[in-house]
From TrEMBL:
Domain (Major facilitator superfamily (MFS) profile): residue spans on this chain: 22-396
Coiled-coil residue windows: none
Protein name: MFS transporter
Upper taxonomic lineage: Bacteria, Bacillati, Actinomycetota, Actinomycetes, Streptosporangiales
Membrane topology term: Multi-pass membrane protein
Source domain of life: Bacteria
Keyword field: Cell membrane, Membrane, Transmembrane, Transmembrane helix, Transport
Transmembrane regions listed in the UniProt entry: 23-47, 53-75, 111-129, 149-169, 175-195, 216-234, 254-273, 285-303, 309-334, 346-366, 372-395
Keyword GTP-binding (UniProt): no
The keyword ATP-binding belongs to this UniProt entry's keyword annotation: no
Cellular compartment(s): Cell membrane
GO cellular component, one term: plasma membrane
Alphabetized InterPro entries for the sequence: MFS, MFS_dom, MFS_trans_sf, MFS_Transporters
Main location: membrane
């Protein structure tokens, strides 16, 4: 009995121990924020059903949101380094709460367009600040595990939020906006009260700014790799649902059941392997994850049943688990402490750009043939993996 009691803390310690208390405040706020992420997954449904907008207008609204999102990461990166990590994160969350409610009460198309642009600008403004906080608070050896735990919290919260959002939407869309806004406020308060400001006192402003980031060829190369990674993942919520339901002929229930496997595997497996993955070379690990994701998406070209779709999802989810936490670790390695916000902003910009490009490129390829889409997507993953291996020696020297 005594031996069993002693072993359990050791098991938990290897996965949850060794991280500072402010990190756990950030982790808790991230989880709460994602639990309340109910508006964005149902935005299209809300605009068509509650506001009666035609599909063309909905497309314009989402494009405006994407434009705001592209600017968001770069602006937030600058603010993270200038006014501080805590202020940028808390301010971004409060601004998101206000904008959420403004969107929920907007009835005219001009008001909806303005609210959606503002929402794109602020909804993910916390990301550069969050990434910089982890780099400031956590030792280099523990960063892969810390970033991986944040990834796990995001996926767990999103899965629960999606389920709850679908149920609450039937009661009225207003519930989604108020709950989402409330969770944003809770995140802001948690960070403001429990996370110290970590911005370096000596910011070395001379010669700083985005000019330094854009002259860092290694960071630019890594950003290109991240763009490839983001283009892969973005297909999961852009073209994959369309291809599986409209081309393969699966029902929405069948597709939803298969996609649920992604969240289940991440929630169960990722915490178990994050410590081990964190001890491996980041560049090679990231390249391995990209290659596995590429293979998984390429196999989608041969899907004809729900079972085979589940197999391909399991493959690219394995790659996703391998890459979790590694990208943030590499950005933290490349960035000088006083420019971590800007480096994280450029990293986030790659994801925002992919969210805009993925449906455009994916839609064009899907019109040619499903195999053209999935084999090209798989090729992007493999090319990105090769690029990551090529950058590996320089990253290790840095």
């Amino acid at each position: 009995m005594t031996t069993t009691i002693r072993e359990k803390p050791g098991f938990l310690q290897s996965r949850l121990g060794g991280l500072p208390r402010p990190f756990w405040a950030l982790w808790s706020g991230t989880l709460v924020n994602r639990l309340g992420t109910m508006v964005m997954p149902f935005t299209g449904v809300y605009l068509t059903q509650a506001r009666g907008l035609p599909l063309a207008a909905v497309g314009a609204v989402m494009a405006v949101f994407g434009a705001g999102s592209l600017l968001s990461q770069l602006l937030a990166g600058v603010l993270t380094d200038r006014i501080g990590r805590r202020a940028t994160l808390a301010g971004g969350m409060l601004a998101t709460a206000v904008t959420m409610l403004a969107l929920g009460y907007s009835t005219s198309l001009p008001a909806i367009l303005a609210a959606m642009f503002a929402l794109g600008l602020v909804i993910d403004a916390y990301r550069p600040a969050s990434n910089a906080l982890v780099a400031d608070l956590v030792s280099p050896a523990e960063r892969p595990r810390a970033y991986g735990l944040l990834f796990w919290a995001i996926n767990l919260g999103y899965a629960v939020g999606m389920t709850a959002g679908g149920w609450l939407a039937r009661l009225g869309f207003g519930w989604l906006f108020w709950i989402d806004a409330a969770c944003c406020v809770i995140f802001a308060v948690l960070v403001w009260r429990a996370v110290p400001e970590t911005r370096p006192a000596d910011r070395q402003e001379t010669g700083g700014g985005f000019g330094v980031v854009l002259r860092d060829r290694l960071m630019l190369g890594f950003t290109a790799v991240v763009l490839g990674n983001a283009l892969l993942y973005s297909q999961t919520f852009t073209m994959l649902p369309v291809a599986m339901t409209s081309v393969v002929g699966l029902s929405t229930e069948q597709f939803g059941m298969a996609m649920a496997l992604n969240g289940v595997l991440i929630v169960i497996v990722q915490p178990l392997v994050s410590g081990w993955l964190g001890r491996l070379d980041p560049s090679r690990t990231f390249a391995l994850g990209l290659a596995v994701m590429g293979v998984g998406f390429a196999l989608t070209a041969f899907v004809t049943t729900t079972g085979w779709l589940a197999v391909t999802i399991a493959v690219w989810t394995a790659g996703e688990i391998v890459t979790a936490g590694i990208a943030g670790t590499i950005v933290a390695t490349l960035a000088p402490p006083h420019l971590r916000g800007r480096y994280s902003g450029l990293f986030g910009f790659a994801w925002s750009a992919a969210a805009v490009l993925a449906p455009l490129l994916g839609g064009a390829l899907l019109e040619i043939a499903p195999s053209a889409l999935w084999l090209t997507t798989g090729g992007v993953g493999l090319v990105s993996a090769v690029g990551m291996l090529a950058l590996g020696p320089a990253i290790r020297r840095r």
